[in-house]
Structures are given as structure tokens and as C-alpha cells.
Write a structure and sequence with these properties.
The chain is mainly alpha-helical and 195 residues long. It has nine helices and two strands, in the order αβααααβαααα.
């Protein structure tokens, strides 16, 4: 990955933010990592959901809403992220956020060794649009899937991979993320139908 766009750097930024106050608002998180681009704004919240913090009822839905808002803004070509006040003001306990970041750190450092800028056409404008559509679709599935324990992890893992691909400009990872998104969408819909 290019300098400043490593998964480990993003987690470090989240830990630094958690060290600053007892509660970390969604708006604080977006402002801290938002200058790095849209990829980190998708990757970090999705990573929070696939961490132990995602087991808290309501957390997957909250972060899915944030990610969907960001993905919609990618689709309309906005250069700056806007969040409605009720969403931006929601907060997470700093200790839980810090613990989640620390638990994800070994995986992030492993990913940093293997991810890099390749297959640029798969992270270009058309691919970003397709990725944003996939992310919105996956986020729509999360609230009803929260009724099934840990079912929201599949869609959010695919979202995290797509966010990391955008962050690293890694077309190979984007291909993997879009394939994962297809599987997660099909699996999620089938789970909801069978309830």
C-alpha cells in the first residue's frame, strides 16, 4: 500500500482517537479518517462490525447506516462526506473501540504485507461505482440479518474487503471483495427468506 493508506495506520488513527475521550462519536471517526479518502471510511466501520464490538445489538445496523450513507455519496460524486446529526452524534465507548482495534491489528499488519497497488482498472471510477452499489446492497441486508446471531458478519466482511481495496488501490482485492459481496448477498437473502 502507499504510505498513509495501510490498514495498520488506520487502526492506529482509531486507537489515537479512542485515547482522546471516553466516547468516540461517528462524526469524530469520520473526521479523523475522512481525509484519507472514501476507502478508509468504508473499511474502518466495517472492520468494527466484524470485531467483537459488532456483537453488541444495534452496532452492526448503526455502522451499516453510516457506510451506506458514505457509499451513496460516492455514487453521487460528492467530494466531502456529510452525515445527519442524529447519526454523526452517535458514539461508541472508547475502551470497546480500542480493544476492537487492538484485536484487529495482527490481521491488519498481515494484510499490509500482501496488499498493494495493482490492477488499477479494477479500482477506477467504474469499479468504484460498482463497489458502492454492492456496499449499499450489503448494508441494506444488515438490519434484518441482525435478528440472526452473527449473520451480519458476512456482508460486513465483504464491505471491509471492498473498503480495503479502495484504500490500497488493489484491484485484485477489489475482485475478491466483489465476489464476496455476491456470495454474501445471495446467502443473506436466502437466510432472510428462510426465517
Amino acid at each position: 500500500m502507499s504510505e498513509g493508506q495501510k490498514a495498520g495506520d488506520l487502526l492506529d488513527a482509531v486507537v489515537d482517537l479512542a485515547d482522546e475521550s471516553d466516547q468516540v462519536s461517528i462524526r469524530d471517526m469520520v473526521e479523523t479518517i475522512g481525509h484519507r479518502g472514501f476507502g478508509p471510511l468504508i473499511f474502518v466501520p466495517a472492520l468494527v462490525v466484524v470485531s467483537p464490538l459488532g456483537g453488541i445489538p444495534g452496532v452492526p445496523t448503526l455502522f451499516a447506516l453510516v457506510i451506506a450513507l458514505i457509499a451513496c455519496q460516492i455514487l453521487v460524486g460528492r467530494g466531502h462526506i456529510w452525515l445527519p446529526d442524529p447519526v454523526g452524534a452517535r458514539s461508541v465507548d472508547n475502551e470497546k473501540l480500542r480493544n476492537s482495534a487492538h484485536k484487529a491489528r495482527p490481521v491488519a499488519h498481515w494484510m499490509d504485507k500482501w496488499m498493494g497497488r495493482r490492477l488499477d482498472t479494477l479500482t477506477g471510477k467504474t469499479a468504484r461505482t460498482l463497489a458502492a452499489v454492492a456496499v449499499v446492497g450489503l448494508c441494506i441486508l444488515v438490519p434484518p440479518l441482525e435478528l440472526i446471531p452473527f449473520a451480519a458478519l458476512g456482508p460486513m466482511l465483504a464491505v471491509a474487503v471492498i473498503g480495503l481495496a479502495l484504500t490500497a488501490h488493489d484491484g485484485g482485492l477489489m475482485l475478491l471483495g466483489l465476489c464476496g459481496a455476491t456470495v454474501a448477498l445471495i446467502t443473506g437473502v436466502n437466510m432472510l427468506i428462510s426465517i
